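Per your request, structure below.
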């Protein structure tokens, strides 16, 4: 199965919007927005590559920013468009993160690459997506690239769910390092920090933040969802304290690399 077919089938039936709206999903969303807001200034233009159903693009457009969104999956675009309201300066078009040739160099102040790296399985495609995100960003602009963490998946999927005993997933596991590899039908590409560092070493950038956007959250979804408002606020406070700790980010299911284009 090719990647586009696999992704179309997955996102056609998966409620990604609902995940981000759930209490446990809000941790990733609120953390990502917290860091985006550090760099937003009035009048900035924002590009979101792989915008999904528009959770981030629409939130930024509602705050008055001019936002362009690129999304691969038609189903997601259809949902995105139903949420656009009068007064929002936002566009969404179908496109691929590895080819943004319709966009001129240095167009955007802020570029969000919050989904595509999850679904790119070769180094060539990964480098192409990062290169395109950098190309369309202004010099001095800030890029936000999200990744799926290898070791959170090993713990939660391989061991908690027992999938490491499945013949298919055993074949995708290096039992010396417990590094996971993926095929398009497996949907998600997993990364460790050394993988991300190796990709970024190819570009002239300055890393600003390296963040675990959900940290411990996905290990206890049900517990998070059942928290009182008071307890959840305390949990968020704790999460924000630890989410950039170099000794802890590797436990996160989702990782956000924030860097400036030199």
């Amino acid at each position: 199965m090719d990647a586009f077919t696999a992704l179309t089938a997955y996102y056609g039936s998966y409620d990604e919007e609902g995940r981000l709206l759930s209490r446990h999903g809000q941790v990733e969303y609120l953390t990502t927005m917290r860091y985006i807001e550090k760099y937003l200034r009035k009048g900035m233009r924002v590009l979101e590559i792989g915008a999904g159903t528009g959770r981030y693009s629409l939130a930024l457009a509602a705050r008055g920013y001019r936002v362009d969104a690129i999304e691969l999956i038609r189903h997601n675009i259809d949902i995105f468009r139903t949420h656009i309201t009068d007064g929002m300066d936002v566009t969404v078009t179908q496109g691929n993160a590895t080819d943004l040739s319709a966009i001129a160099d240095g167009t955007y102040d802020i570029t969000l690459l919050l989904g595509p790296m999850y679904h790119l399985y070769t180094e060539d495609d990964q480098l192409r997506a990062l290169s395109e995100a950098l190309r369309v960003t202004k010099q001095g602009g800030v890029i936000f690239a999200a990744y799926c963490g290898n070791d959170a998946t090993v713990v939660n999927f391989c061991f908690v769910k027992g999938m490491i005993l499945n013949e298919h997933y055993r074949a995708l596991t290096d039992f010396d390092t417990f590094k996971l590899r993926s095929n398009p039908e497996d949907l998600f590409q997993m990364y460790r920090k050394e993988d991300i560092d190796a990709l970024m070493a190819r570009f002239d950038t300055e890393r600003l933040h390296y963040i675990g956007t959900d940290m411990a959250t996905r290990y206890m979804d049900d517990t998070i969802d059942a928290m009182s408002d008071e307890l959840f606020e305390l949990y968020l406070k704790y999460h924000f304290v630890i989410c950039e700790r170099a000794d802890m980010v590797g436990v996160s299911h989702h990782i956000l690399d924030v860097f400036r284009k030199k």
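The chain has a mean pLDDT of 94.

Regards,
D.
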